[in-house]
Amino acid sequence: MNRRKFLKQSGLTLAVGMISHETNASDELVSGKPNIVMITCHDIGRHLGCYGVKTVQTDNLDRLAAKGVRFDNFYSTSAVCSPGRGSLHTGRYPQSNGLMGLTHAPWWWKLDKEEQHSAQILGKLGYDSYLIGLNHIGDAQRLGYQTILSRRRQAPETVEAAIDLIRSRKPDGRPFFAKIGFR
Length: 183
Description:
The protein has 183 residues and is α/β, with parallel strands linked by helices. Helix content is 38%, strand content 12%. It contains 7 helices and 4 strands; from the N terminus they run ααβααααββαβ. It is globular and about 35 Å long. The protein starts with a helix and ends with a strand. The model is unreliable at 11-29 (pLDDT under 50).
């Protein structure tokens, strides 16, 4: 899927969500929606096989990238972790969403209270939302995650929790958004 097609589809999803919010018909409109699995890695850049790096073995991620959405033309809004992730989940620049620095000591930056995170937006559209592993944006419940897994945020625990979640979901059930984060 190219960027233009992705943006077009995303806009369609947002429009459906706005309609469902206004008409309270979210359950009917969500049926048939895809599950969303977002995987982020701390400081990995494009060092994956699916981006042409031959010295790194990422066979499973390469297969997943081939079947899902993989961004070929992208950039981060910030060289700093938390602001970049905040932009990814709000669609707004750090200076607009309030998260202009790291969320841990001694900075303690946060998204502005009125900002909507992707977990909140998708929750309003009828998605169940899960945070598995690293977040590094702020309080997961405030961001809209309904369930938090892999609290120690270690890779083996995160992988196991993600696999358990995906295997436990019923194909005909509500769609889910799983944000899986690794250090």
